[in-house]
Amino acid sequence: MDIVNPQINEYVLAHSSPADDLLRELAAETRAATGDSAGMQISHDEGEFLTMLVRLVGAKRAVEVGVFTGYSSICIARGLPADGHLLACDVSEEWTSVARRYWDRAGVADRIELRIAPATETLRALPTDQVIDFAFIDADKVGYPVYYEELVSRLRPGGLIVLDNVLRGGRVLDPAFDHEADIAMRKMNETIVRDERVDAVMLPVRDGVTLARKR
Ligand SMILES: C[S@@+](CC[C@H](N)C(=O)[O-])C[C@H]1O[C@@H](n2cnc3c(N)ncnc32)[C@H](O)[C@@H]1O
């Protein structure tokens, strides 16, 4: 199911600040190098959205779960101040080797710390008093509840967690879709809307994005 009419998506893209040449080159290299997996990359308009959110929150300390070839991490890092820090979590040396090259070229490598390990391990190992201003979750869907909990407990008041793919192509609507990722996402969405620690807004941006802001 298309969440948004494809023509509307094109129009949205055409009327958002355009991605620069570097991000377009990264998208093209990702398509050439990873084939069908390239569909995991966020879209240009979602990237601009992330940069704007990071700036609006005034974030300095950010976390990303799910780096792939680095598109969203560049967008997040560009929204941070020069002394900002992005902890980037992924399990793939291969995909993140592309990301490292583009972080260098984007001039943001000095603000990104990459940890190659299951994100559950990385996040659980963070000090409990570590303060996070902004987080983006875009990795294995079954892991979302753990990632959300580890991040929300460290989020400062006014801090923001952004979760991607919360609509799963519309499959969250129908329990007949019983893939573990669809089940996990339904549970995640129910948890967030009942979580009294945050105000939550779910938006039909691409495959669905939830913004959870700590009270
Ligand atoms: C949807 S892609 C991320 C796309 C990325 N945000 C972008 O804009 O290009 C999901 C990523 O999550 C990573 N991943 C999968 N399972 C993971 C886990 N348990 N811990 C950390 N990363 C994981 C994959 O290696 C993959 O790079």
From TrEMBL:
Q: Name one GO molecular function term.
A: S-adenosylmethionine-dependent methyltransferase activity
Q: Which domain of life is it from?
A: Bacteria
Q: Does the keyword Ribosomal protein apply?
A: no
Keyword entries, A-Z: Methyltransferase, S-adenosyl-L-methionine, Transferase
The reply on keyword Protein transport is: no
**InterPro entries linked to this entry:** Cation-dep_OMT, SAM-dependent_MTases_sf, SAM_O-MeTrfase
What are the recorded Gene Ontology BP terms?
A: methylation
What PROSITE patterns has UniProt attached to this entry?
SAM_OMT_I
Name it. SAM-dependent methyltransferase
